[in-house]
Amino acid sequence: MNKTPGFSDDQIDAILAGDRTGTPAADALADDLASFRDALRTAPSGRAQWVHLAAMRQAANEEAILGRRRTRRCATVLAAVLGTFGFLGVTGGLAAADSLPGPVQRGVEAVARSVGLEVGGADPSSPVPRDHPATTRDGDAPVVTAPGQSGATPGQTGTTPGQSGSAPGQTGSTPGQSSSAPGQALAASTGSHGDA
Amino acid sequence: MSDDEVVVAARRGDTWALEALYRTYAPQVLGYLRGHRVADPEDATGDVFVSVVRNLATFVGGEAEFRSWLFTIAHRRAIDSFRRRGRRREDPSDPAGLGADLDTGTDIAEQVSTRLALRPLMAAVDSLTRDQRAVILLRVIADVSVAETAAILGKEVGAVKTLQRRAIATLQRTVSIEAVS
């Protein structure tokens, strides 16, 4: 195996920079690397430079256009986000203050509950709207009555109004019937009716 | 105007600043990609600078940070080339891979002479491991410090020092053998 001279870090830096340090082995390599640098580090040909610079100008123009589009898109997205949060903030605030109309209030409460928030003063477990005074709470039997209803038709007492088991004025017999024909004598009446 | 101000102007999209950065750093980026034997290094250099322009809005820092960032992009471009190259056979006829990259603006004969003289060293650089070669090319071609090299390669400073020490030893052996022969 070849034994190579051990150079210090400073010597290596000098060799790579093409600087002479007074050490023959290092100087020879430094000279070669300096020539190597000069041979490789030349400008591109004139035509290549022209092509490269034209491509760079085109890319710069495209990036400028894209940059403006990106700025506009960002502004639009930002406005939409701010608008959404503003709307939600105002709506949520009004809902918390119970200042929204009933249906809207219930809608906002439902949406808020779905994301784990509770707005407004209503019991979130109550499925019945708060603006109905005759409501029931959990555990009560549901009462299906309308306001003012007491279970029966007003004035109803179990029978048809004015009904008393018989037709009006009826007393168990045909009206005007007195078991005898009008003008008929008592004797005739007793002999003709009820004998059969 | 300072280099930091040029970088700030480039971030604003000023064309003159982009051109200034290109003219300053294109030779180094091209040299780095050539050293890695990237296929069509000039084309790859253009890709690197277009990528810089496209991502400059996300860059934060001054000139030193810009240089590290630029070579991070160039290094990734080189890795992409390694992956593509791994799927096809290489041409072994030009181990240094520099035959087509002579600078037409200067003396061609001198360049050829220099490169012929450098062929052993270039072959030695080719023989380094990929990480060792990256460290040597960043230190020599890109003129970046050990700490910057570590940041570009995503390695610890100690690891970079070890890599460069081993690489120098390998290159030293090659130069010594060549001098004897």
Task: Walk me through this protein's architecture.
The complex is a heterodimer of chains A (196) and B (181). With 196 residues, chain A is mostly helical. Chain A is 49% helix and 0% strand. Chain A has helices spanning 9-17, 24-40, 46-96, 102-114, 186-192. In chain A, α1 packs parallel to α2 (24-40). The longest helix of chain A is centred in the middle third of the chain and has 51 residues, at 46-96. Chain A is elongated and about 95 Å long. The model of chain A is unreliable at 132-137, 139-146, 169-176 and 183-196 (pLDDT under 50). The mean pLDDT of chain B is 85. Chain B is mostly helical and 181 residues long. Chain B is globular and about 50 Å long. Chain B is 73% helix and 0% strand. In chain B, α1 (3-12) crosses α2 (15-35). Chain B has eight helices and no strands. Chains A and B meet through α1, α2 and α3 of A and α2, α3, α5, α6 and α8 of B.
Query: Shape of chain B from CA axes?
Result: globular
**Largest binding interface between chains:** A-B, 41 and 55 residues
Q: What's the alpha carbon Rg of chain A, rounded to whole Å?
A: 55 Å
Topology of chain A as a string of helices (H) and strands (E): HHHHH
Largest sheet of chain B: none
Distance between the termini of chain B: 51 Å
Helicity level of chain A? 40-55%
| Biggest sheet descriptor of chain A | none
Structural class of chain A: mainly alpha
Number of extended strands of chain A:
0
Kindly, what is the distance between the CA atoms of the first and last residues of chain A, rounded to a whole number of angstroms? 158 Å
| Total DSSP helices of chain B | 8
What sequence of helices (H) and strands (E) makes up the elements of chain B?
Answer: HHHHHHHH
Overall average residue pLDDT of chain A: 69
Task: Assess the beta-strand content of chain A as a share of residues.
Answer: under 5%
